[in-house]
Inverse folding.
């Protein structure tokens, strides 16, 4: 198949799909694609900023991964990028119509990543014990919910049932 034929076939399929789609699905797809573009732009800027921070730390000879502040800066930035990319991926799945809605498990996973990031950048001397306990309880609760949802999905697959959303 030539490049031109492939383009015409792809365009024809996309046009047919758009013609058959309901207006709200087109709107939802448009919004999802705009969000993917915006988040991709944010990820690119954050990656540039993280690279800039690491280079500045290296040039100033302040890059000591065993130093808590350096660790917080570098790994906090990395975790932020991972969270943004996972969030973008969940929206991309909706945009590609592999799922109708963003899955609750994905939202819980992103929340778990955000809490893990919080623990990484946490200044243990500057925060109260009650706040650490509350964060730990939130982490355990989200982990339990994620585990329960995974178990439910495994049970449903084992018994031949469809996922309920």
């Amino acid at each position: 198949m030539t490049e031109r034929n492939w383009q015409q076939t792809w365009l024809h399929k996309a046009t047919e799909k758009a013609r058959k789609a309901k207006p709200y699905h087109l709107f939802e797809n448009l919004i999802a694609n705009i969000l993917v573009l915006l988040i991709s732009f944010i990820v690119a800027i954050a990656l540039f900023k993280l690279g800039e921070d690491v280079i500045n730390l290296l040039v100033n000879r302040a890059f000591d991964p065993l130093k808590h502040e350096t660790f917080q800066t570098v790994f906090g930035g990395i975790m932020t990028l991972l969270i943004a990319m996972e969030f973008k991926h969940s929206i991309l799945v909706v945009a590609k119509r592999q799922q109708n809605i963003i899955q609750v498990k994905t939202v819980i996973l992103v929340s778990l990543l955000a809490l893990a990031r919080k623990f990484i950048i946490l200044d243990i001397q500057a925060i109260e014990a009650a706040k650490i306990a509350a964060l730990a309880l939130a982490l355990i609760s989200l982990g339990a919910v994620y585990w329960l949802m995974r178990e439910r999905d495994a049970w449903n697959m084992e018994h031949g049932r469809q996922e309920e959303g």
Notes: Helices lie at 3-20, 23-59, 68-95, 104-121, 129-158. The radius of gyration is 21 Å.
